[in-house]
Amino acid sequence: MVAIPNLRGPLRVQYFQEASLAAETGKDWQETFRKGLERSRLAVTEDTGANLLRVGLAETPTEVVLSAGVRINDREEVRFVTMARATFAIPKATVSPIRVDQQLVYQSGDWILDAAYLVDGPEKNMMILVNSPGGLAVLRIGSGGEIKQAVSLGAAGAHAERANDGELQFEGSEVSVDFAGRACHFAWTASQDVSCRAGKVMRRGTALLKPACGPGAWKLIADGTDWFSPEFLQVVPDGNAGKASAALLSDFPGPILSVNASGERGPDGALVVTRNLRTGNYEVYKITLACGN
User: Nearest 10 degrees: CA dihedral of 240, 97, 292, 107?
Assistant: First the structure.
């Protein structure tokens, strides 16, 4: 594993490994990893106040993936190591230095249900689905965070019943807003012509990130079940069947309400909506997997 800058002990190590993978690989790798830390003069402790190093072992159909994540100076540092399943041996692993970048790009006191990229010519804007005192609306947000256009959905009879039942998609020149039992469509050039119909099933897909330096794609997972606690964003290799070996990548100041990667130029970024439990504001973060230290 490539060294993480400014990593110092003592460290409290937490391991993640699926039972099916443990049956195949055993747990000797955990002891090997611990000895590697000691050789690097990084002390390991059980003290709950020590900095937490999260280490996970996951699998794809062809590879075994070792991940390690730790918070250094208010930034989450993550490294991935991949190796062929047939030659699983940590000392021979191929290293892919990857870090998670988390950037706050928009915040509002209005209830944000979803956010998505809007590729409009050379400029990449965002769409924000909000439920404000004036009703449901889709906002087009410029690169500087300014509101460039607003489309009200109230006149078409759209309304939100729950905080997580709205989904934005951008296909060609048309925007679609899907709800649990309703769907609305419009084009920005004819934003007054909003049409809604009943019976649409939500089609939220998997948010995938693919760094230029790393193998394969990585799947972002957020439970979104507890709206009153801060939440971690998790990552698993695409094709991995479970979450038990996922690395915890980034923490947020509240629950994660949506993860959306639709409309991005290439699967290298996603937008995450959360509610900041300290300020009460709704916030949108851009998440990318960057290469290098």
Answer: 40
Domain CATH code at residue 48 = 3.30.160
| 264 and 281 belong to one structural domain | yes
Query: Do residues 3 and 35 share a domain?
Result: yes
DSSP letter, residue 279: T
Summarize pLDDT for 90-110 with one digit per residue, the tens.
Answer: 444 444 556 778 889 999 999
Prior bond of 122 cis (ω within 30°): no
Which structural domain, as residue segments, surrounds residue 57?
Answer: 1-97
Assess contact for 285 and 272: CB atoms under 8 A: yes
Identify whether the C-beta of residue 96 lies closer than 8 Å to the C-beta of residue 80.
Answer: yes
- Residues 36 and 42: their CA atoms lie apart, in Å, by 9
pLDDT tens string 28-78? 778 888 888 888 888 888 888 888 888 888 777 777 788 888 888 777 787
